[in-house]
Amino acid sequence: MKPTILCVGLLAATALTAVSASAETLRLLTWGSYAPEELIQKFEEKYPDITVEVTFSNNEEMIAKLRATGGAGFDLAQPSHDRIYAAQLEYGIYKPLDLSQINTDVMSPVHLEAVKANTTIDGDVYAVPHQWGTTGLMADMTKAPDVKSWADLCDPKYEGKTSMRLKRTILLATAFAMGQDPFALYSDLDQYQELLDQVADKLIECKGNIKAYWQGGDDLSAMMLSGEIVASETWDSTAYRLYDQNNNIVFIPPETGALTWIDTFAIPAKGNADDAAYKWINFVLEPENITIMSGSTGAIAAVKGGADLLPEDKKAAVNAAFTQEDIDNLKFFANIPPGVEDMEGKTLEKIKAATGG
User: Fold this and answer.
1) C-beta of residue 94 within 8 angstroms of C-beta of residue 126
2) pTM reported for the whole predicted model
């Protein structure tokens, strides 16, 4: 009997070794809320040979982590679409995608093409879209029914009744309200500086209209719900939450177009689980999983009919905000050239010093 027992033992050990060898870990570098536990469990049940390991991050940290390792340490990252091109040219931290491995047919064409335009280098595509959202306007329609432009935040009739956040987005928004396209001037930084100076003057003049400069969604929400302000620049997700509490408070895509970010899928240059990465991308694009993901992120999936796949409590707010015309008019953030963020930062400091913001 002993030889038989030994043989069985060897077979079991061999089988265990084979399973271990075939198992892999998908190391995901993503935003907080972009890897809800419910989806991780579903994915690991569907693919029992893959374990998902999550590191939460943001755009700056993603670049820093991948730059430090030359693109190693992670198998799938989710940078925003305007933070890939320059990082790839300078650091080579991503690898080209094999689009044949991704179900791009389900993606919203406007978002897919926007990401391709931002992340194509020498004919290779380095990212595809996942979730998207916007910055625009929010107003209480019973108190400010005619708000439709970024400039309306500075309309004298709303003196002391509006708000904004002193970050780079309001610089870009104000430029568009002035009839300029700030992204078109990224290629000429002297002209862009001239525009920033004009924008700073406008926002300093607007000081009297501002009840307070908001720092986060909670303080903005409190001001809107209390009636302290009647309109503000806002993230769309904040407006959606308030709509659920007060249907008079709606998100308004500005007439020049809501400023739009897209978080993407990109594969690090030295990732070693490409097959698992492609499986995850396709998995989270399945309709039932999109609803779970959007419930966690508060954002819309960049797929056809993405708004209809939102959880019910968010769907009504989005449908009240966006028409197809608004979606066609989205202004996608452009790739940020070296030096631009420093220029914008100095402009914001100038405005803060003059307004106490």
Assistant:
1) yes
2) 0.81
Distance CA 247, CA 218 (A): 18
Q: What Å distances lie between residue 127 and 2, 47, 56, 121, 124, CA to CA?
A: 57, 23, 19, 11, 10
Cβ contacts of 14 within 8 Å, gap of 6 or more: none
CB-based contact 117:82 (threshold 8 Å)? no
Rounded to whole angstroms, the Cα distance separating 196 from 346 reads: 10
| Token pair recorded at residue 142 | 């019973």
Do the Cβ atoms of 265 and 173 come closer than 8 Å?
Answer: no
CA nearest to 256, candidates 191, 325, 306: 325
Q: Are 265 and 159 in contact (CB under 8 A)?
A: no
Residue 167 backbone phi and psi in degrees, to 5: -135, 175
- For residue 102, is it left (φ>0), alpha (ψ between -120 and 50) or beta? beta
Spell out the domains of the chain, with CATH numbers in brackets.
Answer: 23-132+261-303 (3.40.190.10), 133-260+332-353 (3.40.190.10)
Helix (H), strand (E) at residue 187: none
User: Which segments of 203-353 are extended strands (E)?
Assistant: 210-213, 231-235, 249-252, 259-265, 267-268, 300-301, 331-332
pLDDT in tens, 254-290: 999 999 999 999 999 999 999 999 999 999 999 999 9
Show Cβ contacts of residue 113 under 8 Å, excluding neighbours closer than 6 positions: none
Chain segment 205-253, per-residue pLDDT in tens: 999 999 999 998 899 999 999 999 999 999 998 998 899 899 999 999 9
How far is the CA of 237 from the CAs of 243, 297, 298, in angstroms? 10, 9, 6
Q: How far apart are CA 238 and CA 247, in angstroms?
A: 13
Residues 6+ apart with CB under 8 A from 220: 163, 165, 214, 232, 234, 238
The first and second tokens of residue 8, run together, are 């069985």
